[in-house]
Structures are given as C-alpha cells and as structure tokens.
Amino acid sequence: MNEKTLIRAMPWLVTIGFFLLWEVVCLLTRVEAFILPRPSLVFITMAEFAPQIAHHSLWTLYTTTVGFAIGVVGGALLGIFIGASRLVYVGLYPVLVGFNSIPKVAVVPVLVIWFGIGTIPAIITAFIISFFPIVVNVATGLATIEPELRDVLRSLGASKTEILTKVGLPRAMPYLFASLKIAITLAFVGSVISETVASNEGIGYLMLSASSSYNVPLVFAGLIVVAVMGVVMYAIAVWFEKRMTGWAFRGSDLMG
Amino acid sequence: MQGPAFVKIDGVDLVYRQAEEETLAVQDLTLDIQEGEFVAVVGPSGCGKSTLMKLVTGLLDPSNGLITVDGKPVKGPVQGVGMAFQNSTLLPWRSTLDNVMLPLEIVEPHKRRLRKEKKAYVEQAMALLKTVGLQDFAEKFPWQLSGGMQQRANVCRSIIHEPRLLMLDEPFGALDAFTREELWGVMQALWLEKRFTAILITHDLREAVYLADRVFVMSQRPGRIIHNRAIDIPRPRTLDTTFEPHFGEIVHELRALIHDVRES
Fold it and tell me: Is the minimum CB–CB distance between B54 and chain A shorter than 8 Å?
C-alpha cells in the first residue's frame, strides 16, 4: 500500500478501529447494554428501527439546514457590516460575544413560549448557534486587509465600496468558508438540543423517547446518525470551500 | 531650479498622537520636486521617510505647513497616484494581468472606458508586462511567481494608469541583491519612457544614486531634509556605472552624511 492510498484509507481505518475497540471493551468488561451497548447491538437496533430513524433524521436534517442557511446569509451580512465599519465593530462585538455566551439550551424554552414546540424553535436554535462563527470570521477577513493595500487603493481614489467589493469581499471568502465547516456541525448541536427539549419530531426527540423507555441502543443509534450527518455536511462544506477559494490553499492537499 | 514645483512641501510638521504621548515624526520638512524628476529620499531607519510618502499622497494630514501637488493643496488622498511598497500586496485571487489592471477599474477616465475598450486596455497591460519581462506570466497567479516577478508586477500595477506621480516605498527592499540590481534597470527604463515624477524611499544608497536625479538625506527623528544632492551621472545608467569612481564617491559622501546623522 503506498502512502497516498494509506492517507485516503486512514479515516475509515480509524473509524472502524474505534468501533472494534468499543466492541472489545464492552465484551471484556461485560457492561450491561442499558449502560453502554456494544456497537454491533447498536447497528442491529439501527436496522430494526430504520424507518423511524430515517423519518426523524430527515426531519433533523431539514431543520438544521434551514437554520444553517439563515445563519450563513445573516452571519455573512452582519459580518460584512461589522468588518466594514470600525464603529459598528466596536459597538456590536461585545453584545455578540455576550449573546453567544448564553447556553442555547436555556433559550429553547423561551422560543417555545414564542413559537410553540416543533420546527421553528429547532430552526432558530440551529440558526443562533451557527451564526456567531460566521460573523466573526467574515468580519475578521474584512478587518485584516493589509494597510499598504488599503493605501494603494485609497491613493488611486477608490471609494469605501470599491475597496470592499474589489478586495474586502474576495479576501473574506476563505474566512467565510472556513467558518461554514464549524457552523454546520454547530447547527446540528442546536437543532438536536431544541428537539430534545421540545419537539415531537427529529433525532433529538427520538433519543429522548428512547432513553425514557431504557432503549439505550436506540439512543446510541441516534447519536451515530447525528455524527454521520455532521461529517457528511462538513465534507460538503469542504468541497465548496475548495471549489470557491482554491487560491487560498496554494496546492496544499492537507485540508478539512 | 526652473518653473513652479510639481510637488512642494513647505515647512511641514507631523505630530503622531498616541494616547497621551505625542511623537514629532517630521519637523520643518521643506522640499521641491520638478515635474518628471526622479528623486530619492534616504535616511536612518525610523526617520519618517514613510511618513513623508503618506504626507505627499494625502493619506496623512500635516500638523503644520503646506503640501501642494501640481499647484493644488493636498487635502485628503490625492487621486490617481501610483504606489508600490516593499510588500507587493498583489491580490492572490487575481491573475497577474488582472492584478496589473486593477487601477484601471478605479481611476477615471479608464474606469468608464474599461468595459467598452477592454481589448485595447488588455493590450496596453500586456505591452507593459512585456517591458518588464512578464509577458509569459500574465495568466499565472501571484503566488506562482518569484519575489522578483511579484515586484515587477507590482511596479506595473503602480504605473498602468499613467500616473503623473509615482511613490515607491522601498519596493526592492525584500529582494536579493541580483534581482534588486536587475530591477533598477527595469525601473529606469520605464521612467525614461514615461517620464512620470517619482519619489523613491529607500535605505539603499546605491539604489538611490543609480535611479535618482536628486537624493535627499533625512535626519534622525524628527525628520528634516539635511542634504540635497544632485546626481550628475548621465543616463541611461548601467550596472557598470555603479563601479565607476564618481558613482562610488557620491555613495561615500551620502554614507558619511548618514553616519554623522546617526552619531548625532
């Protein structure tokens, strides 16, 4: 096996190794299935409950991507706004940090009072949790234009808008795409939290109802499904990043 | 000196205010530059050479005194000036050609005409790239070019819109000696062809003497002009010129002045 195929195979080998180790540890320690089920049991349960899992995971995927999409648009716009103006940056940044420090699980009950249980709180939670890294990254990309470049453009007579469109925005693109990778995984955290607290649909709800009936293998099946969806969405974000901002990586193949 | 000066700096002070502290960066700065003249400003590091550049282009306002460019007092950034820094600041998402053409998208009247006369402008940019030997690298991205090539492209970008005033802030400072000397020749050829007014900030005395009609020596901070040396070496100058005794004498004379300044 040459090095290139080994690099390709590594993620799969590590994942399979992880499950094997888990299986072996469970067998050796004879731990009860309702405390830590063996992965083989989890996968059997997964097959058994396939229709329910498919239904709920698609629901979660839906709320997550909608919340994420709103987060991308809103986050990018606010990031541009903050990054382009020092005044807005200074004024809004502490508020944003404060807002981001609030545990999102504490916000869900408020959202339920406002919007009822179900879809909307999940979408909003996914949105507010994925929003912050996007804002910060886009603003950073804009705020860190080299001063010499700014001088060159200003002495050419470029307006603020021209500096923003010709340099600021293209420069912020790699920052935006880097943040999307973080934001999409956070969006799953947000939607699943919301579903766990208040919903009749989604993987979060499925895991909550499974754990209340001590069906721990089904809880773990839900966790694995969420993880897999996160990895897939992350890979899609990486693919977009490579296509849109290949210039920022200069031929390096170690990314993601 | 003949005629009214193209760039005139008259009794200019600049005070930087940082919190409670005030630093006098330049003091009573006075100099005249004729249209089409190539001048160099040399001095010990931290003497306010780059401040001088920002003052002339209107990126900084003087605390006292007056600066005029082409007879008009400088208030706010002077429009359409060409600038090249040590850091080439090329945009990594644009090809060399598109980088060089950036000023045409900003400076009038080119901005208005660019879309209609795109072809003619591309030809103009390609011709300029050819004079600096980059014609085969037009479609390459900056990060695919060597440091010397990036700096050539940077110089092209600074003069593509045919500015009357070109500001060079140690543009060759980060290059190796061979590439640097090669680019002196490129710079001189461009200037002999287009005859823009150029102000070169440098700490390389040989570079100053090679390129400039006059060399200004600045003092330690707060910077003042303490010497104004006309360079009476005929053009075009070549690398051989730099080994002639007269060239060496001028460099020594300037070196001695800077040494005195640093001691004082």
Answer: yes
Tally Cβ neighbours within 10 Å of residue B121: 18
Interface of A to B at Cβ within 8 Å reads 146, 148-149, 151-158, 162, 166-167, 170-171, 173, 245, 247-248, 250
Q: Distance, in angstroms, between B145 CA and closest chain A CA? A: 12
Instruction: State the residue for tokens 């009247």.
Output: B109
Residue B191 makes CB contacts below 8 A (sequence gap 6+) with B38, B198, B211
CB proximity B83 to A under 8 Å: yes
Distances (CA, A) of A71 to A66, A189, A216, B11, B178: 8, 14, 33, 55, 52
Q: End-to-end alpha-carbon separation of chain B, Å?
A: 31
Token pair listed for B157: 């970008």
pLDDT digits (tens, 9 = 90+) for A27-76: 999 888 888 999 999 999 999 999 999 999 999 999 999 999 999 999 99
Interchain CB distance below 8 Å, B93 and A148:
no
- ipTM value, please give it: 0.78
The predicted-structure confidence for B133-166, as pLDDT tens digits, reads as follows 888 998 889 888 888 889 889 988 988 888 889 9
Q: Of A151, A157, A167, which has the smallest distance from its Cβ to B91's Cβ?
A: A167
d(CA A34, CA A217): 7
pTM: 0.78
